[in-house]
Specification:
CATH architecture: 3-Layer(aba) Sandwich
Bound molecules: S-adenosylmethionine
Radius of gyration: 18 Å
Distance between the termini: 28 Å
Helix content: 25-40%
Number of helices: 8
Order of helices and strands: EEEEEEEHHHEHEHEEHEHHEE
Length: 276
Amino acid sequence: MYIEALAYLTCPRDPEAPLELERGVRLAADGELLAGRLRCPACGARYPIDGGIADLLGPRALPDSIVQVTNFLPPIAWGYERAWRPRALTLLSGEPFGYARELPLIVGLAAPERGGLCVDVACSNGLYARALARAQGGAAGHVIGVDHALPMLRQARAFARAEGLRISYVRARAQALPLASGAAAVVAMGGSLNEIGDIDQALRELRRTLASSGRCAMMCLAQSETGPGRALQGALGLGGVRFPPLDALNRRAAVAGLRLRSQWRYGVVVVSLLTR
Ligand SMILES: C[S@@+](CC[C@H](N)C(=O)[O-])C[C@H]1O[C@@H](n2cnc3c(N)ncnc32)[C@H](O)[C@@H]1O
């Protein structure tokens, strides 16, 4: 993580309590905080920074579904963007949908060039975090990627550093984001809502952390409209992946206080812009 993230990071137990950096940090040549400790002045909790990643969860935070367990496996984290992710939306939507189409769509909705904090929630290898950081360019702000799986975050950090992008990666749960209310100009989520666990709490956290002028750009998967598609989704459901009908998903976002501004559907792939 980078020092810029300190302007935004708060305690996951008390999201209005800013975290402080304890003395004795180890820095990389570009100023990245490689090792050290964060402390919550309100509750006294201490959180390690190790290998450039702030861990706000600790060793007892375990995945709670089969699909979440897979994300904690280093070979899956290594192969995620190398093998699956570039093809994912083409396979899922049934039409050509590579990064050249997906990323401008997400970045266009998020508008990170406005500056401020951009957060990629449940970021895996940080695909959206990198796209947001590139588009944010010289604007004042910072990009933070959050995930609960350390192997995913390690790979995300390696990809960002290889591109020379200053992105802070933080281990935390989407249901307890370590950010003050209204802190984020952008929250982005790519395909994660389907396997996040408590969807409604995750939606409430997206709403809580979004600034009044903030934009939430989300890609997620809806229930298939075909019989075979639903049968396959039913089987994946056994592993913990959920595919709610789109109208139900939109109702749940509305109940969480997120207003749907625009939405596009490509097969089961849904891209949405939400605001407060
Ligand atoms: C489908 S992948 C995300 C893909 C990524 N956003 C992208 O666009 O390439 C799902 C990710 O969500 C993470 N995840 C699942 N549940 C989570 C939770 N409750 N809190 C934080 N991360 C979570 C997993 O570790 C995994 O990396």
